[in-house]
Amino acid sequence: MHPELDTHGPNTPENDTEVKRTLDQLFRRETGRLVASLVRRLGAHHLTLAEDIAQEALLAAARTWPYDGMPDNPAAWLNRVATNRAIDLIRRQKTASEAALVNTERGSLITETLGPEDNQLRLLMLCCHGDVPEMDRLTLTLNICFGFSAREVARLFLKEPSAISARLTRAKTKLQINAPDFAWPTPMELDTRITSVLKVIYLAFSLGYSPREGALAVRQDTALEALHMVELLASETSARGDVCALAALLCLQASRLGSRTDDEGRFVLLKAQDRKMWDQALISRGFHYLAQARASDVLSRYHIEAGIAALHASAPSFGETDWNGICGLYETLEAVTDSPVAALNHAVALSAAGQPDAALLKITKLECLETFTHDIYFHTAKAEVLLMNGDKISAKAAFIQAQNCIGTSTDITHLEHRLSECF
Known about the structure:
Layout: H1 13-42, H2 47-68, H3 74-92, H4 96-111, H5 118-127, H6 134-144, H7 150-157, H8 161-178, H9 187-209, H10 220-236, H11 241-254, H12 280-294, H13 301-314, H14 323-337, H15 340-352, H16 356-366, H17 376-388, H18 392-403, H19 409-420
Helix pairs in contact: 1-2, 1-3, 1-5, 2-3, 3-4, 6-8, 6-9, 7-8, 9-10, 9-11, 10-11, 11-12, 11-13, 12-13, 13-14, 14-15, 15-16, 15-17, 16-17, 17-18, 18-19
């Protein structure tokens, strides 16, 4: 038995499954924290080294835990392994400055467990540095800070994995050559980075709320980590309107996480969700942030989306939702963002508001966009609008078309269930 591990029992299939599930969650949650802690100590010029060390710590856990059992504090175990590995590697380097760094920082490296949470915010700010092109920033931050693979990011941006890998290499090289300061950015620097920081937190939450691959219909740990990051950011930025608006949106959306799947892990439509399961504490926090956001002079897309989420959160039932108000906000969001996804959501809202002709006209226009040609969510939404309007034959064809698109296993199971409603 490994001397550092306080085990929870012998190796069994059940324990092995638990370890694998925990490792997957830790990969996403702890990689960014480990990298942030290491970069703070080693400097931005060692970004790739910090990432490699974090990966080695996770691999060590994957090799050890299934046999020896999980430690009581997995995150602290990972941090200790990563810290020791960092010290060993830097000792081998011969420059006096790095040798001095080991001597002066060794104590703080060993005693630090998870590291201060502002490390994570600083890593976010570092990855969104202005020297890095925006798409490269988003790709790098999703990968390093939130643990998304190049393949997952490629699916999000509808790109080839090789193109995303190239972006990651360029971004890391740029940061390591320029080696920007890991300190909290100045007010001027913050203004240049905050847009990308908010965007990447929004995207990370979205990928947790509605994963693009894997066997889970919802990745709560990923969504809640993104929520945690924006709340940390809100506490550090003196109630900026755009930050508070995003915090409001994510709180209100996260309040529904527990009701989005049933006991068997299958996706549950908004109309069928048990609203008693919605987290009232998160809803309350969401409205608190929304009040702060509305008190600022800034108006961002997050204000509008938070307003939509607030109307959902305050509605006693699906039928009693202020769908006309939601349609109006989606119309504004379309005008502000020119987003086809906002237009698609607007069409769904129009259908729920009792405007089937307007909804179908909008869907027809969107169908011409190449973006949606092979998009499982577009064809599913189209089918739902058709089904909501009583056209089961056309809805069936749309559901079948959605099945021919790439989706998660839970997407396919959901489509099979919905398709049965068309007969």
